[in-house]
Amino acid sequence: MATTHNDIHYYNVSTRYARISVLDSGGNGLPVLFIHGNSSSKDVFFHQIEYFKNDYRVLALDLPGHGLSSNASEPRKAYSMPAYAQTVIEVLEKIGINRVVVFGWSLGGHIGLEMLALFPKMIGLMICGTPPVSAGKDSVAQGFCLNDHMGLAAKADFTEEDVKIFAYETVGINAPHEQFIFDAVARTDGLSRQYMFEAFTSPQATDQRLLAETSKIPLAIVNGSGDPFINAQYIGSLNYQHLWRDQVISLAGVDHAPFWEAPAQFNPILADFLCDF
To answer: Which ranges carry the AB hydrolase-1 domain (predicted)?
Structure first.
């Protein structure tokens, strides 16, 4: 059932593994898709939706097992970065999107990297809080700062305390902590964390470093300088062929979710990126 609120349309799209909840501003502008992170929801992009909805066709969705989307019918198959990418592509195809720029945050950025190999209709990609790593646990360890939060990112069953900690740390300890952020963590299908992380650290995982380095479309990387989960030195050391502005952009004084914590800093950068298309 479709609904409309403040000129924003909400509807569900049936896919192979789940019923996906979609936000769509409509209009004839260039479609821009926002993909959220682990145990989050499309609501985290509130500031970008409001900022861009009059000039672009803003799209956001809840991944399977997240937000208002259903849990996956086949969790082991659906909860991996490649499968998430296939679900996102299925949604875009079903709603008739022929070209799109994607912004992916954290897990959403990894999904965007997977889409580089799968979806030629994506004409630009910006990622945030997303180290492009090769397959295997050792390679994953190079891109991330391994800490207690990383353990939670793979944990199936959350206590109430886990929900609070994960929500606080994911959006940044100094960021606004609105109730929907905690609700999104609590709602998430815990198997999506466990199975996604198992697949991500498998030797059979996609070589996302190779995809990032050889991307044929512009790849923008914007991180918070205080992001406690990523190895900024590693991200900056890769040999990108189409890195936007020829540099990894670091926003001072913000953590893992600069688009939420500091939208006044972040939104103009995304706006500049979108002007290139």
So the answer is: 32-267
Which residues share a beta bridge with 59? 24, 33
Is 132 in contact with 212 (CB distance < 8 Å)?
yes
Q: Which amino acid, one-letter code, is at 102?
A: V
DSSP 201: T
Q: How many domains does the chain have?
A: 1
Q: Is residue 1 part of a domain?
A: no
Cβ proximity of 263 and 47 under 8 Å: yes
Q: Which residues of the chain are modeled with pLDDT < 70?
A: 1
CATH code for position 162: 3.40.50.1820
Q: Read off the pLDDT of residues 172-226 as tens digits, 9 standing for 90 and up.
A: 989 999 999 999 999 999 999 999 999 999 999 999 999 999 999 999 999 999 9
Residue 3 lies in a domain: no
Question: Taking a C-beta distance cutoff of 8 angstroms, is the pair 49, 60 a contact?
Answer: yes
Q: Do residues 128 and 112 make contact, with C-beta atoms less than 8 angstroms apart?
A: no
On whether residue 114 sits in a domain, the answer given is yes
Distance CA 96, CA 103 (A): 19
Distances in Å between the Cα of 101 and the Cα atoms of 9, 59, 112, 218, 220 are: 19, 10, 10, 10, 11
Neighbours of 4 (CB within 10 A): 11
Instruction: Supply the pLDDT for residue 150.
Output: 79
Residue 4 lies in a domain: no
Residue 64's domain comprises: 9-275
Instruction: Quickly tell me which residue has 């050391």 as its tokens.
Output: 237
Q: Is 256 exposed, middle or buried (0-12, 13-18, 19+ CB in 10 A)?
A: buried
Find out whether 195 and 80 touch, Cβ atoms under 8 Å.
yes
